[in-house]
Amino acid sequence: MEKPFFIDPNIARAKTIDTRFYLEIKWLEASKEKIFAPSWQYIGHTGMVPKAGDAHPIKLLENYIDEPLVLTRDAEAHIHCLSNVCTHRGNLMVYEPCSAQKHLRCKYHGRAFHLDGKFISMPEFTAVENFIPENNHLHHLPLYQWGPLLFTQLKKGLGPELFFSQMEQRIGWLPINDLVFDASRSNDYYIKANWALYCENYLEGFHIPFVHPGLNAFLDFKDYATETFTYASLQLGIAKDDEHCFEMPAGHPDAGKRIAAYYFWVFPNMMFNFYPWGLSLNVITPIDAGNTKVSFLSFVFDESKLGKGAGSGLDSVEQEDEEIVQNVQQGIRSRFYHFGRYATQREQGTHHFHSLIANFLNQ
To answer: 354 with 9: CB under 8 angstroms?
Structure first.
């Protein structure tokens, strides 16, 4: 069977992914099951269910996959990620965040479940033949937790360590458990461009001197570096001076470097931007082939460092990225453009991203 996309593993020979990927609806649809469902997705944070008996409904990848899920915390303080769909007739179980729940009860016909999703009871079902309670639990999804951050996987795929381990090892010395969600510094942006165009723009610092004058004044472009891993990558933002940088622990691989920001990307659509004040987590959600939602979620562990260095002015940087990516979206529709080439020392992250897309879609 012919593979729809090919990215040469040698970046010096490789061509960028064909524009069919961005423009043809069938690839956006194929990406739901081949790319997004088996990958790990951000589902929320522990502050959404802080107490036993709390339940918080979520639509995962809203307006794209739109999977109804619910986070619960049981009496033993364990957090669960469950399908938010009753196994009787498909009603949503939890309509809005709620507290002090002993169990979950469907508001349609009264079917009840424990907070870990296990079936309890159902009115008027004593005469139903061959009804097996164990086959009627709410679907229990895998849950991966790092500090307060929660991730899940819609269908069985690769383990979370393949996506997160390099990031955790590299910045595990930071007070990740102290991260606190700051709604006032979080925002959603709606962009008229394909989701992958936004990701590939993030994955290279090549454009910084041309697109981000404010950020470029702070970062040392000549020392900007990219590292790629199996399902993730890292861009190191090196400052021009020692101000507003991380205080690296002795013996750390990056000790002696003026690191102003760690820009981690996790396939396919999550960006973990670590600054001395905390984390700006960006979640990229497709809407359709030409529209995308970008969620900036701020988690703070040192308020005294807010508004300084590379982690300041994020809204301005976002607007600059939006403008360029939306113009690229118009350009890729041209009958005269189908692919480009990579700058070998500057676009390793984008080449890596395109390679993963091709590998997942070719499966």
So the answer is: no
